[in-house]
Amino acid sequence: MILASASPRRLELLARIGIAPTVVDPADTDETPHKAELPLPYAKRMAAEKAAVVAARHPGAIILAADTVVACGRRILPKAETEEQAFACLRLISGRRHRVHSAVSVIDASGKARHRVSTSILTFKRLTDKEIAAYVESGEWQGKAGGYAIQGTAEAFVKQLAGSHSGVMGLPLFETRALLVASGLPL
Q: Dihedrals φ, ψ of 41, to 5°?
């Protein structure tokens, strides 16, 4: 089984269900949303594209790809790369509900693609500027969709979560396991 992701979180999550990929081969695709593309279709497209790119390099292998998108309304929040982006994301979701779409694509050894999506709804507490500044200073937000990592200290900001905790982390384990079993991976 080939994991089409360089995410250490996805490796950690797979290990929780007893799966260790044979190879880790990130897809390295253009992740720019199309004009007016909504968050859910974007997540599905990204996971499918990543799987297809890696499947072309490894014919006959089982490929697992995923994409996680944090959405506030119709808006796709970025993977925060700067402190300013992290501040903007956290201010936007402070005291509000937002959605996290985690799309998973698996291509089996015969080339058949299967797809699933987990959508979680989270409500963050109203964050003070001091709380946001302390979180940004921690650096935990770097490279994280929406500017936070639920598996870290930001979990204390989550007032309510309806959905998949592992999906918010980046790989919904229920959906992933079902796809891998359907693709013939012995678990």
A: -60, -35
Domain ranges (residues) in the chain: 2-182
Q: Which residue among 25, 67, 108, 129 is the active-site one?
A: 67
What one-character DSSP code corresponds to residue 161? E
C-alpha closest to that of 83 among 91, 72, 74? 91
pLDDT at 130: 97
Judge contact between 60 and 85, C-beta under 8 A. no
Highest CATH level, class, for 2-182:
alpha beta
Q: Express each pLDDT in 153-171 by its tens digit.
A: 999 999 999 999 999 999 9
What is the DSSP track for 82-136? Answer: SHHHHHHHHHHHTTSEEEEEEEEEEE-TTS-EEEEEEEEEEEEPPPPHHHHHHHH
Strand pairing category for 158-162 and 113-124: antiparallel
For residue 118, what pLDDT is reported?
98
Annotated catalytic residue 108: no
Q: Which of 22, 27, 19 is nearest to 57 (CA)?
A: 27
